[in-house]
Amino acid sequence: MSAKAFGPVLGLAMLAAAMTPEGARADAIDGNWCASDGRVMSIDGPAIVTPGGSETTGNYSRHAFSYVVPRGERGAGGTILMILLNEETVRLAPGSGGSEEIWHRCDVTS
Predict the structure, then answer these.
(1) Which of 32, 39, 75, 83 could form a disulfide with 106 if both were Cys (CB 3.0 to 4.6 A apart)?
(2) pTM score of the predicted model
(3) CA distance 10 to 35
(4) Within 10 Å of residue 69's Cβ, how many Cβ atoms?
(5) 14 pLDDT tier (thresholds 50, 70, 90)
(6) Confidence class of residue 26 from pLDDT cuts 50, 70 and 90?
(7) Are 62 and 28 in contact (CB under 8 A)?
């Protein structure tokens, strides 16, 4: 097969790889995130399970997420802003000017 013929095949292979769950997640904020102190949160589109265990919704984009902290959790009523820094790291900042935190994707366990 000529090098020219590989162009369409390579393009289709790249498209298929990008459509896999891993490819779709790689550059998106969706997934499970862990803090160094053991807190965990999970983002799936506009849905989030907060570090306090509450299920709520927020403002979602592929590389950013924000939500209002639910009643009963530390910082209730405040807004949390998150920005995806890279595939494995997110910066979390309280909208009220509190300390920023760096969270990492949680290790996958079976």
Answers:
(1) 32
(2) 0.72
(3) 39
(4) 21
(5) very low
(6) low
(7) yes
Distance CA 35, CA 102 (A): 7
- The contacts of residue 38 (CB under 8 Å, 6+ apart) are none
- Tokens coding 99: 């300390």
Q: How far apart are CA 66 and CA 43, in angstroms?
A: 11
**End-to-end alpha carbon distance in the chain:** 42
Cα separation of 97 and 82, whole Å? 13
Lookup: tokens for 1: 């097969």
Six-digit token pair at 49? Answer: 């399970």
Residue type, 63: H
Per the structure block, which two tokens stand in for 54?
């509450």
